[in-house]
């Protein structure tokens, strides 16, 4: 399409999809969404949004959603997609609930079992609330995920908040301790909000300027547990040791995020300082009155920077969880606004109540995490990882500890020195190399063998490429693998018995899945792409094009065929010890 | 294939840089697809779009790289500065801090990119005039001092977005076409800009002043 603007003729490059020209329709759609937001209740809102998204998608892309029957020859739709649009991350295919039913993946041909049901889940426990059979539990989850109604109970096990062999009493104790610990972090955050600048405000961006009105409202806490806790006037170093901590509970109960898994290049260096929060909080570079930025060794990022970016990202968080989280979707306007004020969130006027609420919870938990793990602090992408957890877990403190468990591995991707992400990319590269040397040679020719083109997939674990439901399926299966390894049952005889039929659990299922997604496109890559840019484009455009069960199936095939070549002995051994609560 | 590579006379690589949430991705979506997405997510690493346009009878393919704003990602994103012939340095005119950081971004850019890269300073979100935190004069002064083009834009209202990109691309084209770079149709070769002085373009400045939404 050609149209004239000034002295230039502009030719839209969007040859096939027609997304490139100057259609005013999008603006209309967005406006309509905004208007609707004010009028419609959440549930109705969602179906409308879906419709709009579908509309927008069909307008910008000629592809149908969800690539339903993608077999190995998935190239048919790919070549049409030469149009350059980085599919907006907010619009992965909005089909979801029925994905599993519709997709004919080889997984189902192999009689893939269904998601772990509530009934099965209950039956797994002894009278004193101990899991009878951890292997059975994890096998079940890795073959079909978890039923939505029990996710909030199951995830803490998958994410290592609770060890598999704990009884109910122990877990209750841990839960209480975890809640207190989280509340302390929150109190400390509120104090720092007062010291640093809270942001989102359009006028005061100075690091020093305090937004004092937010501190006042911050007294109102977000979740019911926090109501009794009031901001402490003590200085933050002391805060962590204050009265509520029962002796012993404050020090070594929770994992030092630095002690972690095989991905950690530096785990040796950090083992020693085990009481994590205490030491961290004292060395933490938050802006204090006497030396503003001097302690920010690694970068100029400090807590107030994180707070600012956390809020920016929270406001624009995905809303695709809404139909799957009814209680949160139905939160009242009043409660939502209250929660926003409690964390000093602003600029949310355009959002529906449930998204304001969600954003506020994101802020609360991410800030707490930044304090808990100041080496990582906050890095963009982390909100993508937290958002589904927030949607599933109704209590902030539970969401926090699940997130900590999730981040134990994922945090390395966010390291300033990039060692983690490079290691991961390198591993994807290795997987591709050992599976498909032809493709690998082509990548080498394009100087793309470093696999930088899957960067985003690694960092946000397919969150941008998959729908909410699909993401959760993938993550649950991945977590089950990691939990198996953590519990030391990855190599057990129980697992070996099933090894003939299923691949061994791996720490790196995600990387196998990523490699699988690239291998699924090997034909186009080899035949059509002559530069790395084109591969990046292809990867950025995978949103809405992936079939999660097919992906997992391919990933498992990959694990079976190249696992032994890829895995190094250290990978399997080092992680068995880690759990969030070591006793 | 549907790819326009074969037809492009020139391929210009342009990078979009600036703080988080100043609207880099939105500017690009507006320019390349004429879209504006109210809840666009933070960019992770780099993404890119292309748009082909006709300048002076030549098919120019603009390959525009959108980068993550957070400093943490800078090591990744700065790797993509190499080979760029143009840069859009974006701040949010309702956030003073994002403008104050322009100096750092500029240093970063000059440290990694070609010396003669064409740089355009962009004050985005000019539809929010009531929230303005960066006076036009400040930005103009900065742009003149640093020899940058300057324009205020609104990705939301589509104000000056085309003009900003086109100004930069045309300037690049002007430099490149003078520099006898032959049109090499089939490759992704990016032009280089050796030895060209860049002056502040008066039209670009006046564009900022008179830019519809900003008055």
TrEMBL record, chain A:
UniProt keyword list: Membrane, Transmembrane, Transmembrane helix
Cross-referenced SUPFAM superfamilies: Ypt/Rab-GAP domain of gyp1p (SSF47923)
Matches recorded under Pfam families: RabGAP-TBC
Gene3D superfamilies: putative rabgap domain of human tbc1 domain family member 14 like domains (1.10.8.270), Ypt/Rab-GAP domain of gyp1p, domain 3 (1.10.472.80)
Bias (Low complexity): 218-236, 267-282
Polar residues compositional bias, start-end: 196-207
Residue intervals passing through the bilayer: 27-47
Rab-GAP TBC domain segment(s): 145-482
Molecular functions per Gene Ontology: GTPase activator activity
InterPro entries hit by this protein: Rab-GAP-TBC_dom, Rab-GAP_TBC_sf
Residue span of region Disordered: 92-115, 192-300
Designated name of the protein: Rab-GAP TBC domain-containing protein
Protein species of origin: Lactuca virosa
Top-level taxonomy: Eukaryota, Viridiplantae, Streptophyta, Embryophyta, Tracheophyta
UniProtKB/TrEMBL annotation, chain B:
Family per similarity comment: Belongs to the small GTPase superfamily. Rab family.
Keyword terms: GTP-binding, Lipoprotein, Membrane, Nucleotide-binding, Prenylation
GO cellular component terms listed in the entry, alphabetical order: endomembrane system
Topology term for the membrane: Lipid-anchor
Protein name per its UniProtKB record: Ras-related protein RABA4d
Cellular location(s): Endomembrane system
GO MF annotations in UniProt: GTP binding; GTPase activity
Zinc in keyword set: no
SUPFAM superfamilies assigned to the protein according to its UniProt record, in alphabetical order: P-loop containing nucleoside triphosphate hydrolases (SSF52540)
The keyword Nucleotide-binding belongs to this UniProt entry's keyword annotation: yes
Short name of one Pfam family: Ras
Organism: Lactuca virosa
């Amino acid at each position: 399409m050609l149209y004239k603007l000034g002295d230039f003729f502009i030719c839209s490059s969007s040859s096939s999809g027609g997304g490139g020209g100057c259609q005013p329709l999008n603006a209309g759609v967005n406006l309509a969404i905004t208007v609707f937001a004010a009028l419609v209740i959440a549930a109705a809102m969602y179906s409308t949004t879906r419709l709009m998204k579908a509309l927008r998608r069909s307008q910008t892309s000629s592809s149908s959603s969800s690539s339903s029957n993608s077999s190995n020859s998935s190239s048919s739709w790919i070549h049409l997609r030469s149009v350059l649009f980085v599919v907006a991350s907010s619009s992965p295919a909005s089909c979801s609930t029925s994905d599993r039913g519709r997709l004919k993946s080889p997984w189902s041909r192999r009689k893939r079992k269904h998601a772990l049901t509530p009934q099965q889940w209950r039956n797994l426990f002894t009278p004193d609330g101990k899991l009878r059979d951890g292997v059975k539990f994890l096998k079940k989850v890795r073959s079909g995920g978890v039923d939505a109604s029990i996710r909030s109970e199951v995830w803490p096990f998958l994410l290592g908040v609770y060890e598999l062999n704990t009884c109910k009493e122990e877990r209750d104790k841990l839960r209480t301790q975890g809640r207190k610990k989280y509340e302390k972090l929150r109190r400390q955050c509120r104090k720092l909000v007062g010291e640093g600048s809270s942001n989102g405000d359009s006028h005061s961006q100075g690091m020093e300027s305090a937004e004092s009105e937010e501190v006042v409202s911050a007294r109102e806490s977000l979740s019911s547990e926090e109501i009794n806790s009031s901001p402490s006037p003590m200085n933050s170093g002391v805060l962590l040791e204050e009265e509520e901590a029962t002796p012993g509970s404050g020090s070594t109960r929770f994992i030092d995020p630095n002690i972690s898994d095989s991905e950690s290049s530096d785990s040796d260096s950090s083992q020693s300082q085990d009481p994590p929060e205490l030491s961290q909080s004292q060395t933490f570079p938050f802006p204090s009155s006497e030396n503003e930025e001097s302690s920010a060794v690694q970068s100029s990022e400090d807590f107030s920077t994180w707070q600012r970016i956390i809020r920016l990202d929270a406001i624009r968080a995905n809303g695709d969880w809404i139909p799957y989280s009814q209680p949160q979707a139905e939160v009242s306007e009043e409660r939502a606004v209250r929660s926003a004020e409690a964390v000093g969130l602003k600029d949310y006027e355009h959002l529906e109540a449930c998204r304001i609420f969600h954003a506020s919870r994101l802020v609360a938990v991410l800030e707490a995490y930044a304090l808990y793990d100041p080496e990582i602090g906050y890095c963009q992408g982390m909100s993508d990882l937290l958002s589904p957890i927030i949607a599933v877990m109704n209590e902030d403190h539970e969401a926090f500890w699940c997130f900590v468990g999730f981040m134990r591995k994922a945090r390395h991707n966010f390291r300033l020195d990039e060692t983690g992400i490079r290691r991961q990319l390198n591993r994807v590269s290795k997987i591709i190399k050992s599976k498909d040397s032809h493709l690998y040679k082509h990548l080498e020719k394009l100087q793309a063998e470093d696999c930088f083109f899957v960067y985003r997939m690694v960092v946000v674990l397919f969150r941008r490429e998959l729908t909410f439901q699909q993401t959760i399926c993938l993550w649950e299966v991945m977590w089950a693998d990691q939990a198996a390894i953590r519990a030391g049952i990855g190599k057990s005889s129980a697992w070996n018995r099933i090894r003939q039929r299923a691949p061994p659990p791996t720490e790196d299922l995600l990387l196998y899945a990523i490699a699988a997604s690239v291998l699924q496109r090997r034909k186009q890559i080899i035949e059509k792409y002559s530069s790395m840019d084109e591969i990046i484009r292809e990867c950025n455009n995978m949103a809405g094009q992936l079939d999660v069960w097919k992906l997992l199936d391919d990933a498992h095939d990959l694990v079976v065929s190249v696992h032994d070549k890829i895995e190094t002995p250290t990978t399997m051994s080092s992680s068995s010890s880690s759990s969030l609560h070591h006793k | 294939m549907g790819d326009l590579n074969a037809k492009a006379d020139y391929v210009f690589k342009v990078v979009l840089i600036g703080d988080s949430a100043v609207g880099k991705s939105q500017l690009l979506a507006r320019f390349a697809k004429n879209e504006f997405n109210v809840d666009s997510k933070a960019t992770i690493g780099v993404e890119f779009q292309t748009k082909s346009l006709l300048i002076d009878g030549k098919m120019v393919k603009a390959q525009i790289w959108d980068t993550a704003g957070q400093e943490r990602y800078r090591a990744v994103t700065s790797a993509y500065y190499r080979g760029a012939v143009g840069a859009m340095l974006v701040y949010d005119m309702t956030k003073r801090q994002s403008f104050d950081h322009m100096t750092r971004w500029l240093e970063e850019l000059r440290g990694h990119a070609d010396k003669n890269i064409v740089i355009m300073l962009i004050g985005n979100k000019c539809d929010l005039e009531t929230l303005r935190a960066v006076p036009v004069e400040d930005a103009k002064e900065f742009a003149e001092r640093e020899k940058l083009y300057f324009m205020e834009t609104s990705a939301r209202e589509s104000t000056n977005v085309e003009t900003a990109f086109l100004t930069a691309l045309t300037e690049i084209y002007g430099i490149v076409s003078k520099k006898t770079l032959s049109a090499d149709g089939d490759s992704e070769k990016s032009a280089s800009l050796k030895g060209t002085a860049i002056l502040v373009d008066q039209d670009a400045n006046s564009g900022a002043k008179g830019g519809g939404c900003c008055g």
